[in-house]
What does this fold into?
Amino acid sequence: MDTLLTTAFMTAFIAGTIAATLPLLLAGLGEQMSEKAGVLNLGLEGMMLVGAFAGFAVALESGSFTLGFLAGIAGGMAVAALMVLACVVLPLNQIVIGIGITLGMQGATSLAHHVMYSESYPRLPRQPEFAVPLLSEIPVLGASLFTQNPVVWLSFALVAVMAWLYRATNIGLNLSAAGEKPAALDLAGVGITLTRSAAVLTTGALAGLAGAYMANIGAGLFVPFMTNGAGFMAIVLAMLARGRPGWVLGGALLVGVATSLTTALQVAGLNIPTDLVQMLPFIMIMIVLTIFGRRAGLPAALGHPYLRGAR
Amino acid sequence: MRARSRDALRALAPIILALLLGGVILAALGRDPILFYTRVLNRTVFNASGLQEVAVLMAPLLLIAASLIVCFRAGLWNLGIDGQFLLAAVFVAAYGPALVTALPYWVAICALMLLAAGVAAAWAALPALLRAWHGVNEIISTLMMSFLAFSLSAFLVKTYFGDPENTVPQTLVLPVEDRLPRIAESLVHVGVVFAVLAVLVVHLVMTRTAFGLRLRIVGHNPRAAEHVGLHVPRLTLAVFGISAALAGLGGAIEILGVRGVVRADWHPGFGLLVVPLVFLARFHGVAVIGFVAFFAVLTIGGESAARRADLPNHFLLVMMAMILGILALVDHLAARAKERG
It folds into this structure.
């Protein structure tokens, strides 16, 4: 067990955990907002991919990671705008459109990658990081825990911001009403279209940022289909979290630890089958569902378009 | 008659529009759209072996469609089809070679089909029970079970079900002569016929029998179903069992008919592609055959046309997405036109 406690092992483990957790956290927080407002957004994976591609392309051209992240956000929001048009402005089927968006963006980003980068396969240089003063100087673990890209700090802060938004503001109340009883919100004089559109666009922004993080920080390059189901994982985490941002963080960390444990254990020379370790988070989620799953935790109007006057 | 031709137009217009839009994209990329589509058709519809390949690809897709029709009509979201399909395929690939040598051929095939249906249904049992007794959302639980099944399948193929002689992690190979018999010297195996029959039977059961009516009532309004005395939890279990078993049969047909082997990294992910097709066919078993056929033509023809045009074949995903978007839009416009009379 000596190998488990070496600095090299812990550094690889922590870096891997954060790299796996962060996209899930950001996309999960985004999906949570859209689900709260009554829009089941199955296009999340597509939004992440476009964010990844746009973020990578802009960071590569401009040499600026900040611009790259902004482009990722913009890319995700552009895709979200499609979802808004189809499922908020028009009452089209959210599941069909969501799957369509994911499929279409998988194809579009892979096509764009083929046209632009399939011959050169460019990579980004290492990203700037921000070390928290003092804390990052703690021996052994300090450096790996507290030296991170600013996006990481922002994302953890976002959990608290979201929790405050849902618990203590009118915006949070409006979002819940749009998901639970849209007619009541409409009667109160708040536009459902506006509320839901804002929620879905925020989802797009966060999913785009998640994708850009995956490409620019996690991998340093864009590969077609690189999100590899992370969007769907994030959807499940958001559903399980029942509207609590802290639970999204917990779930994302759980999956992140399990993902990174595999690689880190292999680095440490222990040969545990990867496939079994990867099953851990899902088994845990199923156990949680079995024990605590009695109460349905999803908004009443989730997946239903709002039509004024319709019953 | 006019209503029927209007329905047909409604189904075809989006496909035509999407093909046109796809042509515009192709032209923008500097490819000749007419040449592209001609190649798609030449590779499939106007080509005997291409047409047979289309039929072969349709078999697993149709069984998945049948599986989805059952659960969607009953208002349940079994999104774990990919896991049920894969796990069943892995068990069939693992036990297939031994069973066909130990038992008379058709007995072995029937046993393998039952095994596939049983494995898939067992895998759906936990989400089904959670849904039936505790009302746990089945979208989450079936998706989770699906992710679990992917890892479990890979693990099994690399360990207990693996072929130790092979450096690539994969199961033993079912010899070509032991795969499902082909019809009249063609590529088309009897599994294709089985799949078409399965969709039609599912359609008839769902639309023409008392059992199907009960399921549809549960789907429309579970509380009303309780009021008329239906045992909703029991019906929920039945729906999950049937739906998963059909997906499992799809996995069995794919292994017994075409592949004969499962590699650890094999992961077809058909389910997500079939979900929209089933929606667009409005859960109608005959219409879904048409949509699945169109999809198979686009997949097989498009793959070859994309390769020859130096495009990644994922280009087809863009086309599928456009078809879905336009179909959803056309549906909405038609419904509104109907409302206004």
In short: The longest helix of chain B spans residues 105-134. The mean pLDDT of chain B is 88.
